[in-house]
UniProtKB/TrEMBL annotation, chains A, B:
Residues 8-68 form the HTH tetR-type domain. Transmembrane segments: none annotated. The keyword Metal-binding does not apply. PANTHER family: HTH-TYPE TRANSCRIPTIONAL REGULATOR BETI, HTH-TYPE TRANSCRIPTIONAL REGULATOR RUTR. InterPro entries: Homeodomain-like_sf (IPR009057), HTH-type_TetR-like_transc_reg (IPR050109), HTH_TetR (IPR001647), KstR2_TetR_C (IPR041490), Tet_transcr_reg_TetR-rel_C_sf (IPR036271). Residues 31-50 bind DNA. This is TetR family transcriptional regulator. One of its GO terms (molecular function) is transcription cis-regulatory region binding. Keywords: DNA-binding, Transcription, Transcription regulation. It comes from the Bacteria.
Length: 196, 196
């Protein structure tokens, strides 16, 4: 018999434990046993909440994806010049990444071995395309440089933003959320060069 | 008895097979058995060349690190304004990353579980600091913006450059090496915004 704590978990708190374990061990390397130990509840208690680890993965990456797609529905992402909308979206991407750090980290590490992972990759690609469309529109308006191909620029900008999950620590003494979002917005649009 | 191909390996070709396996399975997940199968030679033949998998890791990350540190000794990295030297180094980092793609990919995935991995992480930090110093010097000369903290800017620029290993495929129909290096140099220094 597993000696388990009284199950005071909600699907939400169980999810937060699962995401932490997935990020530490990798999704493939995580068993229900690992989740049970980390949560301090029995496997059967976990099965009371979810059908299995893939459901937890689905919920976790959905949270990250909903946060990202939600940006595109916000007023400043829909109204105004394409360049202004793009700048808004870039800044909000950083904010969502920092607000949902473990969930976005997991999303970015998904590799495509299961249906849920393939679905998440497909949704990420959709989001990338939406941002690339915005970049294309801003270039057509003459607000964004045209000497860097749109897909390549999108990849490099996403590369900069997504790399934040590798080093950002919310409890650290380093840069705060606002500082990171400002830095990304400045570098992505203005680059390093001092304004002439 | 292992039925092995005749051992026509040199330390160099064995290294290239090992790096591929490390990148696919992760260093921790790779056994001498995996290396033996991938190389098509017996384990004892591998031991003829190297003391074990950690020596292969050491050689592989050394190759990436030597490539990166070598940049700093090149004339254009030593002579000229700090901003021009920084721009040269950024472009050369992309070129070295693309030329030594599997080796740099492995270097960037090193986690710090063994002495060799910890040594590699320490050397990466040294390199980051050298580039951060250049950025600081360029800011002091007034050529680089000062409203983004130097370490944060360095992290974001490295994030953009290092993300290339996630999607660049040498044999692909996508952007070529020159196009990627140009794109990074333009975005890092000038940003997305069209020149007024």
């Amino acid at each position: 018999m597993t000696t388990a704590k009284r199950d005071t978990y909600t699907p939400e708190t169980l999810l937060s434990v699962a995401v932490q374990v997935f990020n530490e061990r990798g999704y493939d390397g995580t068993s229900m046993e690992h989740l049970s130990k980390a949560a301090g509840i029995s496997k059967s208690s976990i099965y009371h909440h979810v059908a299995g680890k893939e459901e937890l993965l689905h919920r976790a990456v959905s949270r990250a994806l909903d946060g990202l797609f939600g940006i595109l529905d916000e007023e400043h992402a829909r109204v105004g010049s394409a360049a202004a909308r793009l700048e808004y979206v870039v800044r909000r991407m950083v904010e969502v990444l920092l607000a949902e750090l473990p969930y976005v980290t997991l999303l970015l590490r998904v590799r495509g071995n299961t249906d849920t992972e393939r679905w998440a990759l497909e949704r990420r690609r959709d989001f990338d395309h939406r941002v690339a469309d915005l970049l294309r529109a801003a270039a057509a308006e003459g607000e964004v440089r045209t000497d860097v191909e749109v897909r390549l620029a999108t990849r490099l900008v996403f590369g900069m933003i997504n790399s934040i999950v590798e080093w950002y620590r919310p409890e650290g003494r380093g840069a705060g959320e606002r500082e990171v979002a400002d830095a990304v917005a400045r570098l992505v649009f203005g680059g390093l060069r001092a304004a002439g």
